[in-house]
Write a structure and sequence with these properties.
37 helices; Rossmann fold; 43% helix; NACHT-WD_repeat; alpha/beta; NACHT domain-containing protein; 1108 residues; WD repeat; five-stranded parallel β-sheet; 7 domains
């Protein structure tokens, strides 16, 4: 959290230090990054605050979301009890997960990150996860003296000699009861039974611990129990509040509700007060702990972090009268007044704290372009700071002994030289090596050095080379000893880049420039326009300029690479400016590997003997030269999730031959066993289908709109509110572990698969069918188009479920194109076109993006016309459409005009579409009308042409497909994106027209294919052949669906009825045969011709058959 206001001078210093990279030096503290998100965990005892939590869900959260929407800030409440049957307190491993979630919210939430609700009940105590051998034996002995059954203690707390020091560890209930978290049709009843079994276990264990530690102190005199005072037995609410307050008291809010006239004798009090198990007597032990907890809240929320904040106002106190039987009716005026006051108090306090937090940042006081550059630079610096603390095996050896690096560094200090290029496969360690090299250079070159860094695809403004280069050039103008340059043109950016490098070199001011993964997000269609940036980055550098670049191994060897680029790479190789990864076992010593493994195992509290450690190190050492991804694989296996999987399967850790497929499948199997394959598929598909990454709130919103989830997970009764349980997502997120990674888009933390090959693996497993792909992208499109803002009906007649209107409300965030007149929704701008394109909905793609004037203007004004053209290039490589192509042509022809002044876009569209609109569909007419309407409503003078001198004839679009196997019979899909053709090898080739790629080959016929046709619903491809068969191929799965042999002679022609129920074929032996589509059963056999039947056709209504 930020503390204290910044003076103007200190703000200017902070800005300069960020821009110049001075904050990267060891010991310097990074300025707080203000995120466009507010993430607040709602913590309370289960069932105690149901009415208040309903108010937070239905009133407070929507009101906060609406208020902060104009600033582009996401507001998300993570309610640990929402639609979650399990009591958080009763599983300490769940509490640990929430502590990690609190830590994440503290780091990434703009202001408040915890809201605690405390009432008259202390709640269930959390069992200790670990007990020292001394404590375990003492507890066991005292429990025996108290006549407690210690068999349960012995069964659930097992000695783990792999811990350091050895200790007794509680078995994770989620592992012991494999169906505890699952709610599938087949496991629902088992899950309910296991949940009850664990609750019984918990109650007995909790009673044992409480009895031993607090109720019979006289018995402790027989035993040395001094160490047992560390076992506190706190409730989950108190544990989480204490942890959050330790992070930052000013980010914690607490509602303290007290019922007046309430005691253990009141009826209906079970959810609101602590009672002894199986009785109506007050649990005085827990009530005493509640009293101390309330006192500690008052104490913790009174210590100000600075004098400008009254932190005691983070406590909100309510005294309300108790209603008999706990019956708080909706028409109770007093209780409704309390809920309205609660709603207003929480809303106003969160609003104040978050706005204060944002206002303390210097970025909120910068001009918009400076703010964008500052945040972009700080996000990359924050990422560097995280990575720089990681261990890079072999780095010290590399620095001392790698002659290429030593020669490059020596040359860079005094002479002209080329950049240092790091080359390697995916997950070979390029990013970490680049980071460590920057850290080494900063330490070596001293405080005078300045530094600029970019990690490709880390942010929404680092996704193509043009954006990255222009951002770097702009940042370079803020460096010390650089004269001001005002021209912002693309090519002058290149000139200014060269000029600044020369100026810094002449002034003996060292500059480090690092770009990691420069090819990551460059699409093939953009390759030509990107060449100039690559050439500039790879050119000869003046002394004192240290440029480090990383690329994947195939970039410089690609035969399609520009000739000049290949020449530059060859020159770099000759001058030994290329470092190849991964490091070999010549660079990494087995001793270093030994220490690394030991430290990684210590992080997850796994202790092994020296002999076992040496054996593990030897296994890894032997694979270093064989597997480029070996250290990423190590991260996967040295993880709690993987150890949990091994424990469930009763396997031991085996590092002999690490296999990436086996490890991936272990993680996936573990998830599916815990949560069910269908629920896993829904979550994985949304993550895989995002363009680059997805925000947690977006994911939870989309899952909340997915009816399949609710019908699968809630087998008996649907929840009161149709929201995906946050606790379910958190459990899965921490189980996936290193398979997930984070990016920073629009100053929001978004999640994605940690590597592209993981995403590819997930797609191959869960998105194999075309239908599944389109459904996932359709759902995401509907979310960004706000299709279900009000509600989404949930109907299942088999369960007699019909939820509509308010009952089917999903409480999802709005996603308008414009947050305000000056703020764009960059998440919608980045995602919507991609989702609509892959959903196959070309009409909506044009209506809401490519042929929508407001969208085009927002894209150009909020981002750049280069970014828009880059995306339209990708659309054109996936979809063939005349409307899209004419918009692309207009934008390319006006790029220099519109990039200088986006307001001129409307006039250019009117000028260029006026004479040719009649040649195109209604979307082009609509675009023209929208441009006219915008001009009329614009409050500043704009150019509106009254006539057009542009040609009235649109150009022909000709695409040539390389059909190497020939093309004899041809059939096109309904939307003109794919074409099928028969080949000389009796196969059917499916080509994607826009990309000219062979998508799939359908095999099965043994002789000449005589006819191919798609069914009228485009679900099946039907073919006939002289091999006397009819084959039906399912276009969704690509598999052969049916194979009919209805005649003993060759089939020469075929047609399909418009209702897709009949197939009509003509044969060489003069027959016309009509058969059923699904079964192949012959309905009619007609013999009227005197020779072979070579053509058949049906009228539109299928009433008339014509043959020849």
């Amino acid at each position: 959290m930020v503390s204290g206001h910044q003076t103007n001078n200190s703000s200017a210093d902070i800005y300069a230090n960020v821009m110049q990279g001075k904050i990267l030096f060891q010991g310097c503290q990074l300025p707080t990054l203000i995120w466009n998100q507010i993430k607040i965990l709602i913590v309370s005892n289960k069932d105690e605050f149901d009415i208040e939590r309903d108010t937070l869900m239905t009133d407070t959260l929507p009101k906060l979301q609406q208020y902060f929407l104009t600033q582009g800030i996401y507001v998300n409440f993570i309610d640990c009890n929402l639609n979650w049957d399990l009591d958080l307190s009763r599983n300490p491993y769940h509490v640990l997960r929430y502590m990690k979630e609190l830590d994440d919210a503290y780091k990434t939430s703009a202001g408040v990150f915890l809201l605690t609700l405390v009432g008259n009940k202390y709640g269930s105590v959390v069992l200790p996860i670990e007990l020292s051998t001394t404590d375990f034996n003492n507890i066991k002995n005292i429990a025996s003296d108290l006549n407690k059954d210690v068999k349960l203690l012995e069964r659930w707390y097992l000695l783990d000699d792999k811990l350091l020091p050895p200790a007794y560890k509680l078995k994770d209930p989620d592992d012991e009861f494999s169906n505890l978290l699952s709610r599938t049709v087949s496991t629902y009843d088992i899950s309910i039974r296991e949940s009850q079994e664990w609750n019984d276990v918990y109650v007995n264990l909790a009673d044992l611990f409480v009895s031993v530690l607090h109720e019979k102190p006289s018995l402790k005199s027989k035993h040395d129990t001094s160490s047992m005072y560390d076992i506190q037995l706190l409730s989950s609410v108190e544990m989480l509040f204490n942890y959050a307050a330790m992070l930052s008291p000013s980010g914690c809010m607490c509602v303290l509700r007290q019922f007046d006239g309430f005691n253990e004798k009141n009826k209906g009090n079970e959810a609101y007060i602590d009672l002894l198990t199986g009785s109506n007597r007050l649990d005085k032990y827990r009530q005493e702990k509640l009293k101390r907890f309330r006192e500690s809240i008052a104490n913790k929320l009174s210590k100000n972090e600075d004098n400008t904040l009254k932190i005691e106002d983070n406590r909100i106190l309510f005294n309300i009268p108790w209603k008999e039987n706990g019956d708080f009716q909706t028409d109770d005026a007093d209780h409704q007044r309390y809920l309205r006051t609660l709603n207003a108090a929480i809303f106003l306090r969160i609003k104040f704290l978050c706005e204060r937090h944002i206002d303390l940042s210097i970025s909120s006081h910068l001009k918009y372009p400076d703010q964008i550059l500052y945040n972009e630079t700080l996000m990359h610096s924050t990422h560097y700071s995280k990575l720089s603390s990681n261990t890079c095996l072999g780095f010290e050896n590399f620095i001392e002994n790698n002659q290429s690096f030593k020669q490059w560094f020596s040359s860079a200090n005094t002479d002209e030289h080329y950049p240092l290029m790091i080359i390697g496969n995916r997950a070979s360690g390029k990013t970490l090596l680049c980071t460590k090299l920057v850290q080494y250079l900063l330490n070596t070159l001293g405080k005078n050095v300045q530094c600029i860094m970019r990690y490709f695809n880390l942010t929404s403004r680092s996704r193509n080379i043009a954006e990255v280069f222009n951002s770097i050039s702009t940042q370079m103008k803020t460096l010390q000893k650089v004269s001001s340059i005002t021209d912002d043109q693309k090519f002058s950016n290149i000139e200014s880049y060269q000029s600044i490098l020369k100026s810094l070199s002449e002034n003996h001011t060292p500059l480090i420039l690092m770009i990691d993964g420069i090819e990551e997000a460059t699409s093939p269609s953009q390759y030509t326009s990107s060449i100039i940036f690559y050439q500039t980055l790879l050119q000869l550098l003046p002394p004192k300029v240290y440029v480090i670049l990383s690329v994947t191994r195939n970039v410089h060897t690609n035969p399609n690479s520009d000739v000049k680029l290949r020449e530059i790479f060859e020159r770099l190789e000759r001058t030994q400016c290329i470092i190849e990864l991964p490091f070999t076992n010549e660079t990494i010593s087995i001793h270093e590997l030994n220490l690394y493994l030991k430290s990684e195992l210590n992080l997850i509290k796994r202790n092994v003997t020296d002999s076992v450690l040496q054996a593990l190190s030897k296994c890894i050492y032997q694979q270093i030269d064989k597997k480029s991804q070996i250290f990423f694989l190590l991260r996967l296996v040295l993880n709690e999730s993987y150890f949990s999987y091994l424990s469930q399967r009763k396997k031991k850790l085996d590092l002999t031959e690490l296999n990436i497929e086996e490890i991936f499948n272990a993680y996936i199997d573990h998830c599916e066993n815990k949560f069910g394959s269908k629920i896993c598929a829904l979550i994985f598909n949304y993550i895989s289908s995002s363009q680059s990454a997805i925000h947690e709130l977006e994911l939870l919103d989309m899952l909340s709109c997915n009816n399949e989830f609710f019908l699968e997970y809630f087998q008996k009764d649907l929840p009161k509110y149709l929201r995906f349980p946050p606790s379910l997502w958190i459990a899965m997120k921490y189980l996936l572990g290193p398979l997930l990674s984070v990016r920073y888009f629009d100053s929001k933390v978004v999640i994605c698969w940690s590597h592209s090959f993981i995403r590819r693996h997930m797609k191959q497993k869960y998105l194999k069918r075309v239908e599944d792909i389109r459904f996932a992208h359709r759902d995401m499109s509907n979310y960004f188009l706000e299709a279900f803002i009000e509600s989404k009906p949930l109907v299942d007649m088999s369960r007699n479920v019909q939820l509509r209107g308010d009952l089917a409300r999903r409480f999802i965030l709005q996603q308008p194109l414009l947050y305000s007149e000056t703020a764009y929704n960059y998440r919608r701008l980045h995602e919507l076109w991609y989702q609509l394109m892959h959903s196959g909905d070309i009409d909506r793609l044009k209506e809401y993006t490519v042929c929508c004037f407001e969208y085009l203007l927002a894209k150009i004004h909020g981002l750049s016309i280069e970014q828009l053209l880059w995306e339209i290039d990708i659309i054109c490589s996936n979809i063939l459409d005349a409307d899209v192509l004419i918009v692309q042509t207009i934008l390319k022809n006006t790029v220099h005009i519109v990039s200088n002044d986006p307001i001129l876009l409307a006039g250019e569209i009117i000028l260029r579409l006026r004479n040719i609109k009649s040649y195109y569909n209604e979307h082009i007419e609509s675009l023209l009308v929208q441009a006219h309407d915008w001009c009329e409503s614009c409050n500043i003078p704009v150019f509106v042409p009254l006539s057009s001198w542009i040609s009235a004839t649109p150009p022909l679009i000709i695409t040539t497909l390389p059909c190497s196997g020939g093309a004899f019979k041809i059939a096109a899909t309904t939307f003109n994106q794919h074409v099928f053709c028969t080949t000389r090898t009796n196969e059917i080739a499916m080509y994607h027209i826009p990309s000219k790629k062979l998508v799939k080959t359908f095999s099965g016929h043994t002789s000449l294919i005589t006819s191919i046709q798609l069914t009228h619903d485009s679900k099946f491809l039907v073919s006939t052949s002289t091999d006397r068969t009819i084959k039906l191929f399912d276009l969704n799965s690509g598999e052969l669906e049916n194979n009919f042999q209805i005649n003993q002679n060759e089939i020469l022609c075929m047609t399909i009825s418009h209702n897709n129920q009949l197939i009509v074929v003509g044969t060489r032996d003069r027959l016309i045969i009509v058969c059923h589509f699904e079964t192949g059963e012959i309905e009619h056999s007609i013999e009227q011709h005197t020779d072979a039947v070579t053509g058949v056709g049906l009228t539109q209504d299928d009433a008339l058959l014509i043959s020849g």
